[in-house]
Every structure is written in structure tokens, then in C-alpha cells.
Specification:
Helix content is about 35%, strand content about 20%. With about 425 residues, the chain is α+β, with helices and mostly antiparallel strands. The strands form three sheets. Strands 1, 7, 8, 9, 10, 11, 12, 13, 14, 15 and 16 form an eleven-stranded mixed sheet that branches.
Length: about 425
Amino acid sequence: MSGTGGGSAQAHATAKTFAWVPCLMIITPSVNYRGIDMFVQHENFARALVADLIADNTLLGLLPNNACKLLVQRPDGHSAAIDLTPFRATPQPATAERFFRAVETVDGLLDAYRKAKRAAPFEEDLPGAHDHVDQYAGEFLAGLLSRARKALSDEEARRIGDWVSRFDLYVAVKAVESLVNSEADQTLLKIAPELGWTVHFDHLAIRCGSSARGDAERVVDNLCRHHAYVPAQVPGEDHYRFEDGWNAYLLYKMLDNGQALRLFIDQSDADHPAQIIQHWNYVYGYTAHHLAIRATRCEHGRRLAVSLPELTRALQNRGVETMAPTGQYTDGLLLQCFTRPQRNRDVPARIRQMVRRQGAELETAIENAKLLELVSRREMKPPFAKRCYALYGLEYDADNPLHSAPIYNYFLPEQAAHVIRTSMEHGSRRETT
């Protein structure tokens, strides 16, 4: 299911004052620090981590001929390889802080959002990015922000502002759009303090158009060029291809405050006109298909992941319905589930008619405006967490709520495929709830 890929973009000037030049960023050249290839240290670290995990757990195996990978058995009888080599990146500043750290009111949150979005190039600024996006996408986003101004309390705005202030501009902007779109997205932020949990950003999935136009490649180029994201140097973890007609680029970033950011940039394949991602992009633009969050707690000087069952129970107790989990076979390395899709009943009739021509099931599937993903990633033991952070020149502190060191940092293609299937299954029929 997975592979490597690349993309390029034509030279244009953006609508803002940012210089945008052609840049092939999917494959990153080797970087030497002080004359030493630091990626060797990443691989040595992975080998030690794999050996430690295997010694503690007989359910996990070692992939033959690659001591950086674990071998796990999936429920379908097939095996999956999980590479524990950390991605290589130079820590970057949390650029959202100066915009969001002083948010005290709803107006302050929305003003910070607008200023942050003007401070760096986003998809709206990329030539060609909106050639196949309907004007309704702008109306949809404007409606989200307008409703947020009326519905959010100042307390909720402060909570959102404080959380996103620890990120970079791109994640902060996309997270605000997601959080104001669904009360379910905010629920974990609300209840975490009383439970003694810290809520962590895990990843965002951004739906683009079609590979026929290089839509995802255009977005990836901008993220690498202007937002300092990098692809993983681990083979196969930079690009996934799926048999049902779509593909995705995976990007990563380490912040100097110790947080890792992950992006999942997907698009439909050129020869699959009925694949849903391009139609979501047409209707909703580049708003996130889902925001993925997880939680940890600190016990006896060690940071531990909050399990997926704990997360789902906590949200269900607050009236948030969750769907079937996936990833149990990873022994806690990566588990995830989704809340009910946030439905949008206001898709214009002209768009419904156009989408219906590609398939009757798409007319209702297109109402699936977004999902919230709950994630649990097992944390490293403190000695390994310290070694991992040292790879980035950072000092790990288990008591620092921003410091989380998951054993596994990447994605699993079969779980990513589950996202799209879930979206289609719950969007292929009209629901009354």
C-alpha cells in the first residue's frame, strides 16, 4: 500500500509578499551536523528501542534484516512492519505563540486567527489551488467563524487560544477552524484538567483535489518551503498509495518546545473521478478532514499515554458518540477511533447535482464535513524519551506537559484507509442523529 513519491510546482508569485519558487521537497537530502550524519544516530536509537520492546513483549517480533522495525500480526492474518526510527528535523519555533498567547475573548481568538493566517502563505495564496474549489467553500468557512462568534464563550475561546498557541501557524489556524466546527472537538480540552490529562495535538488531515493537477504536491511544496515541514527519511513513510483511488503525503515537524507535528496531505488519484477526497475539496476547500488528538498523564515521574478505551469512555460520558477502534494489534503503539462525522446539511443543490453524476452515494457522503480522531500512542520509557529528545538537541522533561515521546511516530496505511471507508459508510445514508 505504501511507496515513495515526489512532486513539483510551477513558479508563481503568491498573493502575499512571500517568494514562492519551484521546490522539490518530497525527498530531502542528507543533512550533516558537525560533520556527523545524525540519521545514523536515529537508526541506532531505533535498534535499541526495538530490542527493549521485544524483550518486554512476546507479541512483537523483529523484522528480519531490519533491526529498526517491529513486526506485528494484523487481524486479517497479514503482518505489518512498524519502523521506530524517529524522523529527522531541526527544531522550529512555535510561531503561533505571538498571535494566540494573549487571547481572552471570542473576538480576540478570531482576530488572532485572521492575523496568523495573513502571516504566512496558506492554500488561498497558492496559484491554482482554488481553480477547482467552489465558492461555497469560502462561504462555509465564513459561516463557521460567524457562528463561533455567537456560540463560543470567552472561556472556550481562551482555552482554544491557549492550546493552539503552542503550535506553528499552520496547525494553529487549521486547528481553530476544526475546533469551532464541532463541539466534540472541544470536549477533551474541557474535561482534561479535571482528569489530570494533558491533551496533545497528534495530526491533521488536509484533503486536496486530484493528482491530475498536482493539488497535494502544491500544498506539500508550500508546507516544506514556507512552514518548515519535512518528509520522513524512513522509506515508505513519506507517501502512501491506496488501492481505492487515493494517495497521501506525510509531513513532520519538531518544535523547539518539544512538540511533534504531523500532517496527512491527501488527494484523489487522477483516474478515479468518483473518489470522495476531490469532491470534499471542491465543497470544503482545504479545511481539515479531521483533527487528531490524544492525551497523556504523568505518574511517578513518567509520562504515560491515556488508553483509547479511557478516551472514548470519557467522551461518551459527555454525550460524544464514538465509532469502532482500530489498531489493537499494535499493542498500544497506535490505536485510533473516530467520533460521528460532523454533518453539513447545507451543501447547495447545484453541488449535490454535480456530485450525483459521479455516484449516487456521493450526494450524502459529501455532507461529511469533518471528523474528530482520538489517538493513543504508547509512550517511551524515560531513558529512551531522553535519548529521543537529545536527537533534536532538546532536553526531555516528563513533568513538562508539552513533552510527549511516543514509541511510534508515523501512521499505518490500513488505518488511514479505514478513515475514508468510515467517512463513506457514515455518509452514504442520511442519519437522524
